[in-house]
Design a protein that fits this description.
Layout (H helix, E strand, L loop, with lengths): L2 H6 L7 E2 L10 H14 L3 H21 L8 E4 L2 H11 L7 E4 L5 H14 L2 E4 L17 E5 L1 E2 L2 E4 L2 H6 L4 E4 L15 E5 L11 E5 L1 H4 L26 H13 L4 H16 L5 E2 L9 E5 L6 H10 L2 E2 L1 E3 L11 E5 L6 H13 L28
Parallel strand pairs: 1-13, 3-4, 3-5, 5-8, 8-9
Antiparallel strand pairs: 2-10, 6-7, 9-10, 11-12, 12-15, 14-15
Length: 381
Protein backbone atom coordinates (compact mmCIF):
# COMPACT_ATOMS: atom_id res chain seq x y z
CA UNK A 1 0.00 0.00 0.00
CA UNK A 2 1.46 3.37 -1.05
CA UNK A 3 1.14 6.54 1.00
CA UNK A 4 -1.52 7.83 -1.39
CA UNK A 5 -3.47 4.57 -1.15
CA UNK A 6 -3.22 4.74 2.64
CA UNK A 7 -4.83 8.19 2.55
CA UNK A 8 -7.55 7.05 0.17
CA UNK A 9 -8.46 4.15 2.48
CA UNK A 10 -9.45 6.55 5.30
CA UNK A 11 -13.11 6.88 6.20
CA UNK A 12 -14.51 10.23 5.01
CA UNK A 13 -14.73 13.13 7.43
CA UNK A 14 -16.92 16.23 7.67
CA UNK A 15 -14.06 18.39 9.00
CA UNK A 16 -10.61 19.51 7.92
CA UNK A 17 -8.86 17.05 10.21
CA UNK A 18 -5.64 18.43 11.73
CA UNK A 19 -5.88 16.54 15.00
CA UNK A 20 -4.37 13.09 14.48
CA UNK A 21 -2.36 13.57 17.69
CA UNK A 22 -5.69 13.22 19.49
CA UNK A 23 -7.46 10.65 17.29
CA UNK A 24 -6.65 9.57 13.77
CA UNK A 25 -9.03 8.62 10.99
CA UNK A 26 -9.49 4.88 10.78
CA UNK A 27 -9.51 3.07 7.46
CA UNK A 28 -12.26 0.99 5.95
CA UNK A 29 -10.12 -2.08 6.69
CA UNK A 30 -9.85 -1.20 10.38
CA UNK A 31 -13.60 -0.62 10.61
CA UNK A 32 -14.44 -3.83 8.77
CA UNK A 33 -12.19 -5.92 11.02
CA UNK A 34 -13.93 -4.57 14.11
CA UNK A 35 -17.45 -5.01 12.74
CA UNK A 36 -16.74 -8.56 11.60
CA UNK A 37 -15.53 -9.51 15.05
CA UNK A 38 -18.48 -7.88 16.80
CA UNK A 39 -20.81 -9.89 14.57
CA UNK A 40 -18.88 -13.06 15.45
CA UNK A 41 -19.26 -12.26 19.15
CA UNK A 42 -23.03 -12.60 18.73
CA UNK A 43 -22.43 -16.36 18.44
CA UNK A 44 -20.18 -16.45 21.51
CA UNK A 45 -17.69 -13.86 22.68
CA UNK A 46 -15.02 -16.24 23.96
CA UNK A 47 -15.29 -18.48 20.94
CA UNK A 48 -14.91 -15.42 18.71
CA UNK A 49 -11.84 -14.35 20.70
CA UNK A 50 -10.23 -17.76 20.27
CA UNK A 51 -10.95 -17.71 16.54
CA UNK A 52 -9.42 -14.24 16.28
CA UNK A 53 -6.06 -15.25 17.76
CA UNK A 54 -4.31 -15.80 14.40
CA UNK A 55 -5.27 -12.29 13.26
CA UNK A 56 -4.34 -10.83 16.63
CA UNK A 57 -0.93 -12.49 16.26
CA UNK A 58 -0.46 -10.80 12.87
CA UNK A 59 -1.22 -7.45 14.46
CA UNK A 60 1.23 -8.06 17.30
CA UNK A 61 3.88 -8.99 14.76
CA UNK A 62 3.30 -5.78 12.81
CA UNK A 63 3.54 -3.66 15.97
CA UNK A 64 6.63 -5.44 17.24
CA UNK A 65 8.43 -5.15 13.90
CA UNK A 66 8.14 -1.37 14.10
CA UNK A 67 10.49 -1.40 17.13
CA UNK A 68 12.65 -4.38 16.17
CA UNK A 69 11.03 -7.00 18.39
CA UNK A 70 8.74 -10.03 17.98
CA UNK A 71 5.03 -10.74 18.33
CA UNK A 72 5.64 -12.65 21.57
CA UNK A 73 7.01 -9.44 23.11
CA UNK A 74 3.69 -7.56 22.76
CA UNK A 75 0.87 -7.18 25.28
CA UNK A 76 -2.38 -5.30 24.66
CA UNK A 77 -3.93 -2.97 27.22
CA UNK A 78 -6.58 -0.27 27.15
CA UNK A 79 -4.37 2.78 26.60
CA UNK A 80 -0.76 3.93 26.55
CA UNK A 81 -1.23 5.27 30.08
CA UNK A 82 -2.61 1.94 31.31
CA UNK A 83 0.34 0.20 29.65
CA UNK A 84 2.78 2.61 31.33
CA UNK A 85 1.22 2.07 34.76
CA UNK A 86 0.99 -1.73 34.42
CA UNK A 87 4.60 -1.97 33.24
CA UNK A 88 6.11 0.28 35.92
CA UNK A 89 4.12 -1.58 38.57
CA UNK A 90 6.01 -4.80 37.74
CA UNK A 91 9.37 -3.34 36.69
CA UNK A 92 12.26 -4.73 38.80
CA UNK A 93 13.26 -1.65 40.79
CA UNK A 94 14.18 -2.05 44.48
CA UNK A 95 13.92 0.75 47.07
CA UNK A 96 16.55 3.40 46.46
CA UNK A 97 16.36 3.10 42.67
CA UNK A 98 16.83 6.31 40.68
CA UNK A 99 14.56 7.02 37.70
CA UNK A 100 15.30 9.72 35.16
CA UNK A 101 12.36 11.66 33.72
CA UNK A 102 11.66 14.91 31.87
CA UNK A 103 9.40 17.83 32.80
CA UNK A 104 7.54 17.28 29.51
CA UNK A 105 6.34 13.87 30.74
CA UNK A 106 2.64 13.26 30.07
CA UNK A 107 0.80 14.50 33.16
CA UNK A 108 -1.00 11.23 34.11
CA UNK A 109 2.23 9.27 33.64
CA UNK A 110 4.08 11.74 35.87
CA UNK A 111 1.42 11.13 38.55
CA UNK A 112 2.03 7.38 38.28
CA UNK A 113 5.77 7.88 38.65
CA UNK A 114 5.36 10.07 41.72
CA UNK A 115 2.88 7.66 43.31
CA UNK A 116 5.03 4.58 42.74
CA UNK A 117 8.17 6.43 43.83
CA UNK A 118 6.48 7.38 47.08
CA UNK A 119 5.24 3.85 47.72
CA UNK A 120 8.46 2.06 46.81
CA UNK A 121 11.21 4.43 47.84
CA UNK A 122 12.37 5.40 44.36
CA UNK A 123 14.01 8.75 43.61
CA UNK A 124 12.85 10.69 40.55
CA UNK A 125 15.70 12.55 38.86
CA UNK A 126 14.99 15.38 36.36
CA UNK A 127 17.02 14.89 33.20
CA UNK A 128 18.93 17.93 31.91
CA UNK A 129 17.17 19.50 28.92
CA UNK A 130 17.61 22.49 26.64
CA UNK A 131 15.14 25.34 26.31
CA UNK A 132 12.95 23.29 24.00
CA UNK A 133 12.82 20.35 26.40
CA UNK A 134 15.26 18.17 24.48
CA UNK A 135 17.35 15.83 26.65
CA UNK A 136 21.00 16.88 26.89
CA UNK A 137 22.41 13.85 28.66
CA UNK A 138 21.70 10.91 30.96
CA UNK A 139 23.44 10.57 34.35
CA UNK A 140 25.17 7.22 34.68
CA UNK A 141 23.88 6.57 38.20
CA UNK A 142 20.28 6.00 37.02
CA UNK A 143 18.52 2.64 37.14
CA UNK A 144 15.85 3.53 34.57
CA UNK A 145 14.80 6.34 32.24
CA UNK A 146 11.18 6.92 31.27
CA UNK A 147 10.79 9.18 28.27
CA UNK A 148 8.11 10.24 25.79
CA UNK A 149 9.86 10.25 22.42
CA UNK A 150 7.46 13.01 21.35
CA UNK A 151 5.31 14.70 23.98
CA UNK A 152 1.63 15.33 23.31
CA UNK A 153 2.04 19.05 24.12
CA UNK A 154 5.35 19.68 22.33
CA UNK A 155 6.34 18.43 18.88
CA UNK A 156 10.00 17.94 19.74
CA UNK A 157 11.60 14.59 18.92
CA UNK A 158 13.88 13.47 21.73
CA UNK A 159 17.39 12.21 20.83
CA UNK A 160 16.46 8.65 21.74
CA UNK A 161 19.54 7.09 20.12
CA UNK A 162 21.80 9.18 22.38
CA UNK A 163 19.73 8.28 25.44
CA UNK A 164 20.00 4.59 24.55
CA UNK A 165 23.78 4.87 24.16
CA UNK A 166 23.98 5.84 27.85
CA UNK A 167 23.42 2.18 28.71
CA UNK A 168 20.61 3.00 31.17
CA UNK A 169 17.44 0.93 30.51
CA UNK A 170 14.75 3.05 28.83
CA UNK A 171 10.97 2.72 28.92
CA UNK A 172 10.06 4.69 25.80
CA UNK A 173 6.60 6.18 25.41
CA UNK A 174 5.78 6.09 21.69
CA UNK A 175 2.13 7.15 21.98
CA UNK A 176 2.91 10.30 19.97
CA UNK A 177 5.80 9.03 17.85
CA UNK A 178 5.04 5.57 16.46
CA UNK A 179 3.62 6.26 13.03
CA UNK A 180 4.84 9.84 12.62
CA UNK A 181 8.61 9.59 13.13
CA UNK A 182 11.30 6.92 13.26
CA UNK A 183 11.34 4.92 16.49
CA UNK A 184 14.74 3.33 17.18
CA UNK A 185 15.19 -0.21 18.39
CA UNK A 186 17.06 -0.87 21.61
CA UNK A 187 14.74 0.35 24.39
CA UNK A 188 14.00 -2.01 27.26
CA UNK A 189 10.28 -1.46 26.65
CA UNK A 190 7.85 0.62 24.62
CA UNK A 191 4.34 1.79 25.50
CA UNK A 192 1.92 3.23 22.97
CA UNK A 193 -1.62 3.72 21.76
CA UNK A 194 -3.76 2.78 18.80
CA UNK A 195 -5.73 5.98 18.31
CA UNK A 196 -3.10 8.52 17.23
CA UNK A 197 -0.63 8.23 14.33
CA UNK A 198 -1.31 4.55 13.67
CA UNK A 199 -4.97 5.49 13.11
CA UNK A 200 -6.48 2.57 14.93
CA UNK A 201 -9.54 2.64 17.21
CA UNK A 202 -9.78 4.29 20.63
CA UNK A 203 -9.61 2.24 23.81
CA UNK A 204 -6.59 0.15 22.81
CA UNK A 205 -3.00 0.46 23.96
CA UNK A 206 0.04 -1.80 23.95
CA UNK A 207 3.43 -2.44 25.42
CA UNK A 208 6.41 -4.17 23.86
CA UNK A 209 9.12 -5.52 26.16
CA UNK A 210 12.58 -6.69 25.16
CA UNK A 211 12.95 -10.44 25.93
CA UNK A 212 15.95 -9.74 28.17
CA UNK A 213 13.58 -7.92 30.55
CA UNK A 214 10.44 -10.04 30.26
CA UNK A 215 11.51 -12.71 32.79
CA UNK A 216 12.57 -10.04 35.29
CA UNK A 217 9.13 -8.46 35.49
CA UNK A 218 7.21 -8.95 38.71
CA UNK A 219 3.71 -10.30 39.25
CA UNK A 220 0.89 -8.07 37.94
CA UNK A 221 -0.99 -6.44 40.84
CA UNK A 222 -4.40 -7.78 39.83
CA UNK A 223 -5.69 -11.34 39.71
CA UNK A 224 -7.44 -10.64 36.38
CA UNK A 225 -4.09 -10.95 34.62
CA UNK A 226 -3.29 -14.62 34.44
CA UNK A 227 -4.20 -15.99 31.03
CA UNK A 228 -0.75 -15.95 29.45
CA UNK A 229 2.94 -16.32 30.23
CA UNK A 230 5.68 -13.89 29.27
CA UNK A 231 4.79 -10.25 28.79
CA UNK A 232 1.21 -11.14 27.90
CA UNK A 233 0.54 -11.99 31.53
CA UNK A 234 0.15 -8.22 31.94
CA UNK A 235 -2.89 -8.24 29.64
CA UNK A 236 -6.30 -7.98 31.25
CA UNK A 237 -8.60 -10.99 31.00
CA UNK A 238 -11.58 -8.98 29.73
CA UNK A 239 -10.74 -7.10 26.57
CA UNK A 240 -12.04 -5.01 23.69
CA UNK A 241 -10.97 -7.68 21.20
CA UNK A 242 -12.52 -5.91 18.22
CA UNK A 243 -10.41 -2.86 19.00
CA UNK A 244 -7.25 -4.94 19.30
CA UNK A 245 -7.99 -6.45 15.90
CA UNK A 246 -8.48 -2.95 14.50
CA UNK A 247 -5.13 -1.84 15.89
CA UNK A 248 -3.49 -4.86 14.28
CA UNK A 249 -4.94 -3.99 10.89
CA UNK A 250 -3.85 -0.36 11.30
CA UNK A 251 -0.30 -1.45 12.15
CA UNK A 252 -0.20 -3.69 9.08
CA UNK A 253 -1.51 -0.87 6.85
CA UNK A 254 1.00 1.73 8.03
CA UNK A 255 3.81 2.62 5.61
CA UNK A 256 7.11 4.51 6.19
CA UNK A 257 6.42 6.53 3.02
CA UNK A 258 3.96 8.53 5.13
CA UNK A 259 6.72 10.13 7.22
CA UNK A 260 8.09 12.69 4.72
CA UNK A 261 4.56 13.88 3.91
CA UNK A 262 3.81 14.43 7.59
CA UNK A 263 7.03 16.40 8.02
CA UNK A 264 6.47 18.51 4.92
CA UNK A 265 3.04 19.62 6.04
CA UNK A 266 4.16 20.57 9.55
CA UNK A 267 7.20 22.42 8.17
CA UNK A 268 4.91 24.38 5.85
CA UNK A 269 2.67 25.38 8.75
CA UNK A 270 5.52 26.36 11.06
CA UNK A 271 7.15 28.44 8.34
CA UNK A 272 3.87 30.22 7.63
CA UNK A 273 3.46 31.20 11.29
CA UNK A 274 7.10 31.69 12.19
CA UNK A 275 7.13 35.51 12.02
CA UNK A 276 3.62 36.09 13.35
CA UNK A 277 2.56 36.84 16.90
CA UNK A 278 1.94 33.14 17.47
CA UNK A 279 4.93 31.55 19.21
CA UNK A 280 5.80 28.38 17.32
CA UNK A 281 7.37 26.03 19.85
CA UNK A 282 9.16 23.78 17.32
CA UNK A 283 11.89 24.51 14.78
CA UNK A 284 10.49 24.63 11.25
CA UNK A 285 12.28 21.44 10.20
CA UNK A 286 11.64 19.39 13.36
CA UNK A 287 10.90 15.85 12.08
CA UNK A 288 7.44 15.55 13.62
CA UNK A 289 3.89 16.35 12.58
CA UNK A 290 2.95 18.19 15.79
CA UNK A 291 3.04 21.99 15.85
CA UNK A 292 2.24 23.69 19.15
CA UNK A 293 1.45 27.36 19.36
CA UNK A 294 1.49 29.75 22.28
CA UNK A 295 -0.84 32.71 21.81
CA UNK A 296 0.06 36.32 22.54
CA UNK A 297 -1.46 37.95 25.60
CA UNK A 298 -5.19 38.45 25.26
CA UNK A 299 -5.79 35.57 22.83
CA UNK A 300 -7.70 32.59 24.25
CA UNK A 301 -6.54 29.39 22.52
CA UNK A 302 -9.66 27.54 23.70
CA UNK A 303 -11.80 30.12 21.93
CA UNK A 304 -9.57 29.97 18.83
CA UNK A 305 -9.91 26.20 18.73
CA UNK A 306 -13.71 26.47 19.07
CA UNK A 307 -13.88 29.05 16.29
CA UNK A 308 -11.76 26.88 14.00
CA UNK A 309 -14.03 23.92 14.65
CA UNK A 310 -17.14 25.98 13.96
CA UNK A 311 -15.59 26.74 10.58
CA UNK A 312 -14.80 23.10 9.92
CA UNK A 313 -11.19 22.70 11.10
CA UNK A 314 -10.35 20.28 13.92
CA UNK A 315 -7.37 21.03 16.21
CA UNK A 316 -6.70 20.68 19.96
CA UNK A 317 -6.42 23.21 22.77
CA UNK A 318 -3.95 21.54 25.14
CA UNK A 319 -4.68 22.40 28.79
CA UNK A 320 -1.88 23.59 31.05
CA UNK A 321 -2.27 20.61 33.36
CA UNK A 322 -1.25 18.23 30.53
CA UNK A 323 2.40 18.63 31.51
CA UNK A 324 4.65 20.42 33.99
CA UNK A 325 6.44 22.19 31.14
CA UNK A 326 3.34 24.16 30.11
CA UNK A 327 2.94 27.65 31.57
CA UNK A 328 -0.50 27.94 29.98
CA UNK A 329 -2.70 26.32 27.34
CA UNK A 330 -1.34 25.75 23.85
CA UNK A 331 -2.96 25.22 20.48
CA UNK A 332 -1.88 21.97 18.83
CA UNK A 333 -2.11 21.32 15.10
CA UNK A 334 -1.13 17.84 13.92
CA UNK A 335 -0.70 17.14 10.24
CA UNK A 336 -1.25 13.58 9.08
CA UNK A 337 -0.61 12.54 5.49
CA UNK A 338 -4.21 13.31 4.51
CA UNK A 339 -3.60 17.01 5.22
CA UNK A 340 -3.03 18.84 1.93
CA UNK A 341 -0.92 21.93 1.31
CA UNK A 342 -4.17 23.86 0.79
CA UNK A 343 -5.39 22.67 4.19
CA UNK A 344 -2.20 23.94 5.79
CA UNK A 345 -2.43 27.31 4.05
CA UNK A 346 -6.05 27.77 5.02
CA UNK A 347 -5.51 26.97 8.70
CA UNK A 348 -2.46 29.26 8.76
CA UNK A 349 -4.56 32.09 7.33
CA UNK A 350 -7.27 31.41 9.91
CA UNK A 351 -4.77 31.43 12.76
CA UNK A 352 -3.21 34.70 11.60
CA UNK A 353 -6.69 36.17 11.25
CA UNK A 354 -7.49 35.21 14.85
CA UNK A 355 -4.78 37.52 16.15
CA UNK A 356 -5.29 41.18 17.05
CA UNK A 357 -4.09 43.53 14.36
CA UNK A 358 -4.09 40.87 11.67
CA UNK A 359 -1.28 38.81 13.17
CA UNK A 360 1.72 41.14 13.08
CA UNK A 361 4.75 39.88 14.89
CA UNK A 362 6.13 41.38 18.08
CA UNK A 363 8.68 43.27 16.00
CA UNK A 364 5.87 45.02 14.16
CA UNK A 365 6.56 43.42 10.79
CA UNK A 366 3.97 41.74 8.58
CA UNK A 367 3.04 38.12 9.18
CA UNK A 368 5.22 35.73 7.24
CA UNK A 369 3.82 33.14 4.82
CA UNK A 370 7.17 31.78 3.64
CA UNK A 371 7.58 28.03 3.18
CA UNK A 372 10.60 25.81 3.56
CA UNK A 373 12.01 23.76 0.73
CA UNK A 374 10.86 20.50 2.31
CA UNK A 375 7.37 21.90 2.75
CA UNK A 376 6.94 22.14 -1.00
CA UNK A 377 6.63 18.39 -1.40
CA UNK A 378 3.57 17.25 -3.26
CA UNK A 379 0.65 15.35 -1.78
CA UNK A 380 1.03 11.82 -0.42
CA UNK A 381 2.25 9.75 -3.28
Amino acid sequence: MSAQRWVEERLPTQVRHLDVAACGRVSTGVLEAQVAHLRAEADGGYVAHEAAEPELAKGREALASMVGLAATDVAHLESAHEAFWALLAVWPLPPGSRIGMVTSEYGPNALVLRALAGERGWTLVPLPVDRRGRVLGVPQDLDLVTLPQVASQRGIAQPVEEVLRSGVPVVLDVAQSLGQTEVPAGAAAYVGTSRTWLCGPRGVGFLVVDPSWELRLGTPPTGARYLHSGVRRIETMEAHVAGRLGLGVAAQEWRPELLPVVRARSARLRAALDDTAWEVREPVEEPTGITTLTAPEGVDVVAVRADLLARGTLTTAVPAHRSADLAGPALRVSTAAWVSEDDVDEVADALVGALPGGGTSSSGGPPSRRTSSSASESSAS
